[in-house]
Amino acid sequence: MTEQQVLDIIREGLFTVIFVAAPPLVIGLLAGLIMAIFQTVTSIQEPTLAFIPKILAVLLAMIAFGPWMLSHLVRYFTFLTESFHQFLFPVM
Q1: pLDDT digits (tens, 9 = 90+) for 7-43
Q2: Is pTM beyond 0.70 here?
Q3: Three-class secondary structure of residue 89 per DSSP
Q4: Dist. CA 92–CA 6, nearest whole Å
């Protein structure tokens, strides 16, 4: 196994993590921003008020993007398992 192969596996893993984590994180960020604006406009300074909408937004994002996220994870896992023999028995 060469250094380039290791770097390719790490790069693909990092991109997979970023692609899978991005939708719920972005939606949670937007929900938090909307709640912060709402709290500023209404002068409600309750820190626990923003938790429920953010949790619900992330949950809905996980439900909506779940199949897409799972397909990315399965694709990466399939890539790893199909190329596992190359890691154990490299061609010289």
Answers
A1: 988 999 999 999 999 999 999 999 999 999 998 898 8
A2: yes
A3: coil
A4: 16
